[in-house]
Design goal:
This protein is mainly alpha-helical. It has helices at about 1-5, 10-25; strands at about 45, 60. The protein has one domain. The model has no long low-confidence stretch (mean pLDDT about 60). InterPro entries: Me_CoM_Rdtase_asu/bsu_C (IPR008924), Me_CoM_Rdtase_asu_C (IPR009047).
Length: about 70
């Protein structure tokens, strides 16, 4: 992806997306109740988490839920 687009950030996002999809088979409660998105990936890759909140609540992939309190 990075080679095709000439953008390293796009390639990094694609790599971590493939890692999320590959490791999702372990279940969503495999990391002490936190999502896999909170445990691995680049902190500067932003994503919309469709299972919680609104799409306007954008935050990084590594931003833990307990930091919101």
């Amino acid at each position: 992806t990075a080679f095709a687009t000439g953008n390293a950030q796009t390639g990094l996002s694609g790599w971590y997306l493939s890692m999320y999809l590959h490791k999702e088979q372990h279940g969503r409660l495999g990391f002490y109740g936190y999502d896999l998105q909170d445990q691995c990936g680049a902190s500067n890759v932003f994503s919309i988490r469709n299972d919680e909140g609104l799409p306007t609540e954008l935050r990084g992939a590594n931003y833990p839920n307990y930091a919101m309190n």
